[in-house]
Amino acid sequence: MIGLLETKEEKLKFLIKKHFKLSQKKLADEFDVTEVEMSKIVNNQENKLKNIHLLGFCYLYDVPYEVFSNNKLNTEDKIKAFLEDRKRKKEQEIFCEDELLFNNLVGVWYAYFYPGSSFGNIYSIKTTIHPDHTITDENGNYGKLLMGELQSVIIKKATNSKNFISILFDNADVAFKLFHFSMLSKRNHVKREMCNFGFFSRTKINLELAEQILGEKKHVQLKMDCDFKERVAEYAEMVE
Predict the structure, then answer these.
(1) Domain assignment present for 152
(2) Which H or E run contains 142?
(3) Most buried residue, 90, 107, 129, 227, by most Cβ within 10 Å?
(4) Do 105 and 183 lie in a common domain?
(5) What is the CA radius of gyration of the chain?
(6) Other beta carbons within 10 Å of 130
């Protein structure tokens, strides 16, 4: 059969030479070995090809290990179709897994933002991102972290009101120990949406410094206009 791939070595060669069209030098640089040594690994000379090399290749080029372990994926066409189908499905997904990003996020953070009322101090809320992607904070609210390609969002459920709180931030900013977010929620005791811009910090900081970072409240908080809500309600009745 044309394109029959019976061994892991044959599958690896197909992926390197035909599917990804990788040079020996690029592979050697990726694996931090000489080109001579890389050639021995790829061609399994002296039984150099080990499972750890296959796992490393899968990690570097986002190939499921199933390609090597599934005996039904035994031709070039089948492997190509399998990878293309996987790529198509991944492109349709909204959320994804990102180990590096998550390792930078997991643990304790302190969220700083202005309260909805005209009274009271800036909020400083201890928030914990757990290894299973769940979220808890010191006020008893709980939720989940959902990671996307460029942005991620925390969805929490308020313990008392049962309303959702969404916190959106850019993944690129997470590398820093302090980064900003935008938060949409409802005011306590009032059925009125509110948008807050705040920031997360890995360490607890004093409220005077937090206020300097946030700036004036009018620039980082927006409350839904009650008249707007009334107008929507009026026109909704007309549409019915």
Answers:
(1) yes
(2) strand 142-147
(3) 129
(4) yes
(5) 26
(6) 13
Indicate which CATH number applies to the domain containing 104: 2.40.128.10
| Structural domain containing residue 117 | 99-239
Indicate whether 110 and 147 sit together in one domain. yes
Write down the pTM of the prediction. Answer: 0.67
Q: Could you tell me which residues come within 8 angstroms of residue 150 by beta carbon, excluding any fewer than 6 positions away?
A: 170, 171, 172
Phi, psi at residue 100, to the nearest 5°? -65, -45
Residues 108 and 213 in one domain: yes
pLDDT digits (tens, 9 = 90+) for 115-166: 988 877 899 999 999 999 999 999 999 999 999 989 999 999 998 888 999 9
Q: Compute CA distances 3 → 13, 17, 75, 210, whole Å.
A: 12, 13, 5, 63
Apex 83 CA angle, 81 and 86, nearest 5 = 105
**Nearest Cα to Cα of residue 22 among 61, 54, 48, 65:** 61
